[in-house]
Specification:
35% of the residues lie in helices and 18% in strands. The chain has 274 residues and is of the alpha+beta class. It has two domains: 3-67, Arc Repressor Mutant, subunit A, CATH 1.10.10; 75-263, no CATH class. The strands form four sheets. It has a four-stranded mixed beta sheet. A three-stranded antiparallel beta sheet has the order 1-3-2. A hairpin with a 2-residue loop joins strand 8 (143-148) and strand 9. Helix 9 (204-216) runs antiparallel to helix 10 (220-232).
Length: 274
């Protein structure tokens, strides 16, 4: 077997060893006698044959049999390995996390991640789209590991997912889209599971907006627990508008929800077409 066949065989046999990803650096290290051009040619040929998929510069995934026809692997299958390769702390968040917790209404065609360091460019390649938002620090206490066929992925808990949806509401389509998703996600939210540290990375207004939405959607018990947790954390509510997209017209008198200190400058309309 010549070294060209040996390299192809090594790649195609990776799944037998419980691994479906590899990097160009690994190839260069394992096959030092091959020229860069020869390696490029082999990788290109395997991509054309739909044996492998290039998912990031210098990072590849071996396409499992069940994805062979389409030739594109679901990003969830390799995202943990990719983030490790990039040296990025991360978690699956927002609409993607909500879908994993059962709130699959209008399930996104994009994998949404929170990362800790500098923002990465949105990745859209081969029908796979990954989008990123950043946080100063990943709240590891409020993540959960979900097992996939190729390991584990980091996913925000339902409680953190709810807070993130409100925090990044422009990213997910506005307050009504958030309310629509919360209407399903609320079934698995339990704020009894959070402590004071849960609120550290969020402005108090995020808690206020989330609590108001939960009450409006009829999840009074969940909202009341959040209210009590906010009091225990010594959060001080001040009046803030519900919508950050719509301006508050000074010539208009708005109702104010006294419990949550929310200026109601937009009426909530959820999409019931589930």
């Amino acid at each position: 077997m010549d070294r060209y066949d040996k390299m192809s065989r090594w790649i195609e046999d990776l799944p037998k060893r419980g691994k479906i990803t590899f990097s160009r650096d690994e190839i260069d290290m394992l096959f030092p006698n091959m020229t860069k051009q020869n390696i490029n040619n082999i990788l290109h040929r395997l991509v054309l044959k739909k044996k492998i998929q290039s998912v990031w510069r210098g990072f590849f995934v071996v396409i499992p049999v069940e994805y062979a026809l389409r030739g594109v692997v679901d990003a969830v299958e390799y995202i943990d390995q990719l983030m490790a390769h990039l040296g990025q702390k991360y978690y699956i968040a927002l609409l993607s996390a909500a879908a994993m917790h059962g709130a699959a209404h209008q399930q996104p065609m994009v994998l949404m991640l929170v990362v800790e360091s500098k923002p990465l460019r949105e990745k859209s390649k081969n029908d796979v789209k990954i989008t990123f938002v950043t946080k100063k620090e990943i709240p590891s206490t409020y993540l959960q590991q979900i097992k996939t066929r190729n390991g584990y992925i980091q996913v925000s808990t339902p409680e953190l997912t709810a807070m993130d949806l409100v925090f990044y509401l422009k990213k997910v389509g506005g307050i009504n889209r958030v309310a629509t998703v919360l209407n399903e996600l609320a079934e698995v939210i339990d704020f009894k599971r959070v402590e004071n540290d849960f609120f550290v990375d969020f402005d108090t207004v995020i808690v206020q907006r989330l609590g108001y939405l939960l009450d409006e959607l009829g999840y009074d018990e969940i909202a009341d627990v959040l209210f009590e947790k906010a009091k225990q954390a010594d959060l001080t509510f001040r009046n803030f508008p519900l919508s950050i997209i719509k301006n508050v017209d000074k010539s208009t008198t708005y109702q104010v929800n006294k419990k949550w200190g929310i200026i109601i400058n937009e009426q909530i309309e959820i999409d019931d077409d589930t």
